[in-house]
Design goal:
This protein has eight helices and seven strands; from the N terminus they run H-H-H-E-H-E-H-E-H-E-H-E-H-E-E. It is an alpha/beta fold and 213 residues long. It has one domain: Vaccinia Virus protein VP39 (Rossmann fold). It has a seven-stranded mixed sheet, sandwiched between helices. The two termini are 31 Å apart.
């Protein structure tokens, strides 16, 4: 999942914003208590998401795939004074942990946390989004994109995580597994969508950043 030389990444992090105490604690607890901790955004990507959000100063953010809440807390740092982050996750076993860290981060009034199927929940959120972050089941990336597109304002952003999929996207298409094929197809979909400007940023496991024209 990591494509940058470890020494270079450590150097970059040493000259970047430090993790807050809450994020450090969330990082530790995720690795100690939760399956597949590599799904956590982590320090490097968390800084990127936080900085992008602060640049955009969004009023409304949608996050599809909360996991333990690290990326949501980072994204919420750029919200306007009365802004909201809406985050959705299907795993109810993590709900108490997520809510506890949202409260510890002082973001209870800034974050609306939904538990359930995002495909069903997204249509019920009547907001226009400045920023959408997709980091959920890979087979539905394209479906999430199509579902949120009309809810994103002109000039707004849709960012998808894991678009390099540990380098598996370089495999022969005929040999790709289901998730890899879904990610590769998503990348092609964005690349061919004339309604957006886009770039694939090779940070951590890859971020596809699309700006709605």
């Amino acid at each position: 999942m990591e494509f940058i030389d470890e020494k270079i990444e450590n150097y970059a992090l040493s000259f970047s914003q430090n993790e807050s105490d809450v994020l450090k604690k969330l990082n530790r607890e995720t690795h100690a208590k939760v399956l597949m901790p590599r799904m956590l955004s982590g320090h490097m990507q968390g800084n990127v998401l936080s900085m992008l959000s602060k640049m955009l100063q969004p009023k409304q953010i949608l996050e599809i795939g909360t996991y333990t809440g690290y990326s949501g807390i980072c994204l919420a740092q750029g919200l306007t004074e009365n802004g909201k982050l809406h985050t959705i996750d299907i795993n109810d076993e993590l709900e108490s942990m997520v809510r506890a860290f949202i409260e510890e981060a002082g973001l209870t009034d800034k974050i609306n946390f939904y538990v359930g199927n995002a495909l069903s929940i997204i249509p019920t959120i009547n907001e226009t989004f400045d920023l959408v972050f997709i980091d959920a089941d890979k087979k539905n990336y394209a479906a999430y994109y199509d579902l949120v597109f009309d809810k994103v304002r002109k000039g707004g952003f849709i960012i998808a995580d894991n678009v390099l999929w540990s380098g598996k996207v370089l495999d022969d298409e005929t040999k790709m597994d289901v998730d890899t094929k879904a990610i590769h197809d998503y990348n092609k979909k964005i690349h061919n969508d004339m309604r957006v400007e886009h770039m694939l940023l090779p940070v951590r496991d890859g971020l596809m950043i699309a700006r709605k024209k």
